[in-house]
Amino acid sequence: MALIRAFETRVSELYRDGEIPGFVHTSLGQEAVAAGVCGALREDDYMATTHRGHGHVLAKGADVDGMMAELFGRATGLCGGKGGSMHVADPARGILGANAIVGAGMPLITGAGLSSKLLGQGRVAVAFFGEGAVNQGTFHEALNLCAIWDLPVIFACENNGYAEFSANADMTRVASVAGRTAAYGVHAETVDGNDVAAVHEATDRAVERCRSGEGPVVLELMTYRWHGHYEGDAQPYKPEAEAQEWRDRDPLILAERALVESGAATADELAAVRAAAEARIDAATEAARQAPDPAPEEAFAHVFAG
Amino acid sequence: MSSQAEIVPTRYMEAINLGLADALEEDDRVILLGIDVGAGGGIFTVTRGLHERFGSERVIDTPISEMGYVGAGVGAAMTGLRPIVEIMFMDFISVCLDPIMNQATKLGYMTNGALSVPIVFRMQTGAGRSAGAQHSQSLEAMLAHIPGLKVVMPATVTDARDLLLEAVRDPGPVAYIENRRLYAMKGDLETDPLPLGKARVARPGDDVTVVTWGQTLRDCLKAAETSSASLEVIDLRSLVPLDIETVYRSAERTGRVLVVHEAVQDFGAGAEIAARVGEEVFDLLLAPVRRVATPAVPMPFNPALERSLLPSPEAIAAAAEGLVAEGR
Ligand SMILES: Cc1ncc(C[n+]2csc(CCOP(=O)(O)OP(=O)(O)O)c2C)c(N)n1
């Protein structure tokens, strides 16, 4: 979580300063979802995410240098600089990619679940998506397919209350994603998405169901996005009191507090974790700055497979 | 030994079925997904018998949920399976274009080759039977316009089987487009397949190079029989890859090129071929490149109206003769 926090904070600054091109969507304030879900997965489990996927990709084990270089568009990036923030992927770690089409990851992860089942891979497949994507047909189509085929798929909905500038309550009569899921006969849980332990435990339960062949699970993880939809969005559409309330429930601080209270870590140790994360991001940033752009002919590579 | 004895006349649709069966047989990772492709055998009976033979884990009935199951096919292709997904009518790509256009054809590129998506999007088209404006469209140019997608359109019984097998073996996404007006056509299944990406000279000739693909190959061959001009008919077999070299080589001898397709003329693949011929071998031409295609209107239901719009052997022959007449 500390690494994601440091990564996203730095990316926000680098984007503001014009060092990172394109579109960037940060997940500051949502780190417990990424860490809690991915921490309950195996390295070979599949994961697909969204335009707001840096945290999920890092938590699933992607290399930090490769990640940062990809956001810079460098040849040393995870995708050789041809994917960028919204398309970063690392299939060797089951990371099937961020996706810039809202809702597109759910059918893809359904297919990954199908592969897992038919090829006997024993892998769980997780799709992250926002509550805004629940209004896409893909959510409903993919959920139904996973249900009728009993696929080992976890639908991890990061419910941060807003899709771009639109509040969830304005876009559906049934604000509860778990509630909408009931229509498909699929097990769903709503969880405090700022409580990393709760997210982790709920994911453990979901993984258990999936691996034992009971079919898909929907996890609705209630959280809040601190920054705008994109970097630079001033968020006039959010009530200040609401934003403050969520900032007071900083998932990283909540996690640190729990660790100290349980005696699992000392404040000094946690400070050292944060400092190490900062140093890691410093190094990744510097490496990305120094890295070369892809060679011009790379524009023509991998248009067709093989 | 007479090879004649081994050649069995086969229907185009049987050849597709054979191709599907061969593909399922030769690789356990191949699955077939689609609406009523399983026990029902497909609405045109093209997949008949496959479910019984390969079981419901390989030949999978889906709900009417194209965005879901076509997308799932793409995800399955990314993770170890080699799916053939059937889109019942080509017109229905409207409701599942994202997995084709933004996912399957982009993910290999955007991951710099770390992902590959070996999937076949199987679909059929075919105007001329009053199927109406939502079940008659030939949209191959739309698909060919998407970088990274191979687009094949078998016009013969042999290609119906062999191009399907090539498509399944291809490491990337391929759109395999059948023409349902050819389903009942009988032909000889030949045993020496041409690779995907090679055009075929279906009939040699001297005056006009006629370039076509899919159903209109038959019309062109008929035109060649009756026309006073000598037509060299080229079956492109695939739009992507486009074997334009075979067209150039023919144009070198004939000096005249006519492109014929069932899809609407405006912004169609014929325009691309005409442009390439103009750019690359302009000096060889004795006349402008001409096209015979369907006018750009939604296909009307009325049989007479529909017939009046589609390319016919007569129109093709007339266009070819016109080219000879206007030659410089
Ligand atoms: C198909 C599609 N429609 C619209 C967009 C533009 N868009 C990008 S992100 C977004 C909001 C997504 O909201 P949500 O799914 O809740 O995720 P969040 O941004 O809150 O993480 C929209 C509308 C898009 N990228 N793709």
TrEMBL record, chain A:
<dbReference type="InterPro" id="IPR001017">
    <property type="entry name" value="DH_E1"/>
</dbReference>
<protein>
    <submittedName>
        <fullName>Unannotated protein</fullName>
    </submittedName>
</protein>
<keyword id="KW-0560">Oxidoreductase</keyword>
<dbReference type="InterPro" id="IPR029061">
    <property type="entry name" value="THDP-binding"/>
</dbReference>
<keyword id="KW-0786">Thiamine pyrophosphate</keyword>
<dbReference type="GO" id="GO:0004739">
    <property type="term" value="F:pyruvate dehydrogenase (acetyl-transferring) activity"/>
</dbReference>
<feature type="domain" description="Dehydrogenase E1 component">
    <location>
        <begin position="1"/>
        <end position="297"/>
    </location>
</feature>
<dbReference type="InterPro" id="IPR050642">
    <property type="entry name" value="PDH_E1_Alpha_Subunit"/>
</dbReference>
<dbReference type="GO" id="GO:0006086">
    <property type="term" value="P:pyruvate decarboxylation to acetyl-CoA"/>
</dbReference>
<dbReference type="Pfam" id="PF00676">
    <property type="entry name" value="E1_dh"/>
</dbReference>
TrEMBL record, chain B:
<dbReference type="InterPro" id="IPR033248">
    <property type="entry name" value="Transketolase_C"/>
</dbReference>
<dbReference type="Pfam" id="PF02779">
    <property type="entry name" value="Transket_pyr"/>
</dbReference>
<protein>
    <submittedName>
        <fullName>Unannotated protein</fullName>
    </submittedName>
</protein>
<dbReference type="GO" id="GO:0016491">
    <property type="term" value="F:oxidoreductase activity"/>
</dbReference>
<dbReference type="InterPro" id="IPR029061">
    <property type="entry name" value="THDP-binding"/>
</dbReference>
<dbReference type="InterPro" id="IPR009014">
    <property type="entry name" value="Transketo_C/PFOR_II"/>
</dbReference>
<dbReference type="Pfam" id="PF02780">
    <property type="entry name" value="Transketolase_C"/>
</dbReference>
<keyword id="KW-0786">Thiamine pyrophosphate</keyword>
<feature type="domain" description="Transketolase-like pyrimidine-binding">
    <location>
        <begin position="10"/>
        <end position="185"/>
    </location>
</feature>
<keyword id="KW-0560">Oxidoreductase</keyword>
<dbReference type="InterPro" id="IPR005475">
    <property type="entry name" value="Transketolase-like_Pyr-bd"/>
</dbReference>
